[in-house]
Amino acid sequence: CISTVTLQAQLKGKVIEYDPVKKSSALVPGVVVVWKNTSVAATTDANGAFQIPLVEGNPWLVVSAVGYKSD
User: Fold this and answer.
1) Per residue in 24-33, pLDDT tens?
2) For a Cys staple, 15 with which of 29, 31, 37, 69, CB 3.0–4.6 Å?
3) How far is CA 36 from CA 21, 57, 61, in A?
4) pTM
């Protein structure tokens, strides 16, 4: 019996909102994290954590969430 296993490298991280006035931070759930110009995406969990497959040659992540302004 021959079987093939493909391993996919993953990027793990957390999305954190920092408030400089209060000097505090909070984990942000429900944020969409996507590799720029691709459909490879992940959504942060209740603890602000995400895991997304690496895309070779693409160093840019786009992070978006309802109620937040993009730059």
Assistant:
1) 999 999 999 9
2) 31
3) 31, 11, 6
4) 0.80
